[in-house]
Amino acid sequence: MLDSVDWRILAELQADGRMSINEVSRRVNLSAPAVAERVRRLQESGVITGYHAHVDPAAAGFPVAALVRMECFGPLCLLRDASAMAMPEILRLHRVTGDACCVLFIAVRSMAHFEDVIDRLAEHGRPSSTMVLSSPVPWRAVTRSG
User: Fold this and answer.
1) Which of 111, 114, 133, 137 places its Cα 20 to 30 Å from the Cα of 46?
2) DSSP code string of the chain
3) Is the Cβ–Cβ distance between 60 and 74 less than 8 Å?
């Protein structure tokens, strides 16, 4: 169970994953060794899963984004094919309940590229896509009240 200090540490690291332990300790009013130990525990318990940069796909040359629902099952299911799940255009993949097997967030260079990805996905089931017009909330930190 996370306490209020853990949540304050998480808030700081989610705002800036490159923040030093010393700076985090200053901001949460705890010694650096105590913060380092808490961060280590948060990592070992799987609460902190990694540190990375948030990249805007459009700014990186992938302006076409879509959500794709996959209806598939059996041996051809996308979830059973590690190489298909590793397609670089798939930025997020969620296994879901309901009629769909999974929902993908993909980003591609062009509509022609999008068509190619949909054709490759169709080998695994029936894709149904929704184009992303904008993302008013592209990412949000996990908070205690969340």
Assistant:
1) 137
2) ---HHHHHHHHHHHH-TT--HHHHHHHHTS-HHHHHHHHHHHHHTTSS--------TTTTT--EEEEEEEE--GGG-GGG-HHHHT-TTEEEEEE-SSS-SEEEEEEESSHHHHHHHHHHHTTSSEEEEEE----SSS-----TT-
3) no
Other beta carbons within 10 angstroms of residue 10's beta carbon come to 20
Strand 126-131 and strand 102-108: the pairing is unpaired
Residue 73 pLDDT level (bands cut at 50, 70, 90): confident
Its pTM surpasses 0.90: no
* Residue 41: count of CB within 10 angstroms of its CB: 13
Phi-psi category of residue 114: left, alpha or beta, with phi > 0 → left and psi -120 to 50 → alpha: alpha
Widest Cα–Cα separation across the chain = 55
Chain segment 18-62, per-residue pLDDT in tens: 999 999 999 999 999 999 999 999 999 999 999 999 999 999 999
